[in-house]
Amino acid sequence: MALLSLAHICLLPLTPPEMVSTAAEAGFGAVGLRLEPAIPEEARFPMLGGAAMMKETKRRLRDTGLRVLDAEVFRLISGQSFNRYRPALEACAELGVSELLTTCNIKDRSEAADLLTEACDVANEYGLNINIEFMPWQALNDLKTAIELLRSVDRENGVLLVDTLHVHRSNVPLEELAAVDPARMRYIQICDATTPPPDFDTMLFQARFERLMPGDGVIPLQSYLEVLPKTLPVSAEVPMRTRLAEIGPLALAKEAYVKTRQALDQADW
């Protein structure tokens, strides 16, 4: 049975220790934590330098037996060194994190490769893997482009992150997904969604705030799961801001666990 993790984006109002407790109560075996904000409006949780929140997060991890699967969001940004993340990487190492969710919106492929190489080398010092995620509205916008970038870098800890939402909305052929080297993946993200909107702004909004539970949309999850390695951990990434406000964090987390587990069981994961 695949390890099932709850992504922090599902319950962003919660602090890291609250995420741990909620994920554990909902049935998850792991949790993802957002240590670096994705957008300026998001709060930066005080998790660095021996902060009280870090100590409480570690205590709850010990008490629940959960592990932190991944930390986010680590961006490759033109003209900025990955060294700026070292304090956060130290926090990841302290939490026992192994996977960094990493994005890249750099059009120049040579610069993107240089920054990814640096990111892999810096992350390697902390025992961390750089999981590159492609998104249809970014420069790194499909599976083929992501694989080409990873091959140009050729670092063992530079790997691919597959999100079923982005696979579907980037129109990735099933045979292309099936051809990915399993050694190039450390975990996957799963959700469902509506029929793709025609514009990237709406795509981005839905990706951040309004996805659907597995099995409730149009994404062919079973087809994707059939060709992906069944040994991979799975992160349930189902931000649903409207429903969260209606039913609260724990109920949403429990629903995410049940619906994701059902989808995985149907595919014999």
Overview of the molecule:
This protein is an alpha/beta fold and 269 residues long. 42% of the residues lie in helices and 16% in strands. The protein is built from 11 helices and 8 strands. It has an 8-stranded parallel beta barrel, surrounded by 4 helices. The chain is globular and about 45 Å long. The N and C termini lie close together (6 Å).
Keywords for this structure?
269 residues, alpha/beta, 8-stranded parallel β-barrel, 8 strands, 42% helix
Question: What is the topological layout?
Answer:
Blueprint: E1 4-6, H1 16-26, E2 30-34, H2 52-64, E3 67-76, H3 86-95, E4 99-104, H4 109-124, E5 129-133, H5 143-153, E6 158-163, H6 164-169, H7 174-178, E7 185-190, H8 200-209, H9 221-227, E8 234-236, H10 241-247, H11 249-266
Parallel strand pairs: 1-2, 1-8, 2-3, 3-4, 4-5, 5-6, 6-7, 7-8
Helix pairs in contact: 1-2, 1-11, 4-5, 10-11
Strand content: 15-25%
Q: What's the number of extended β-strand segments?
A: 8
Mean pLDDT equals 97
Any idea what the radius of gyration is?
A: 17 Å
Q: What summary fits the major beta sheet? A: 8 strands, parallel, barrel
Distance between the termini: 6 Å
Class per helix and strand makeup: alpha/beta
Runs with pLDDT <50, length 5+? none
| Principal-axis shape | globular
By DSSP (H or I, 4+ residues per run), the number of helices equals: 11
Q: What string, H for helix and E for strand, traces the elements in order?
A: EHEHEHEHEHEHHEHHEHH
**Helix amount, in percent?**
40-55%
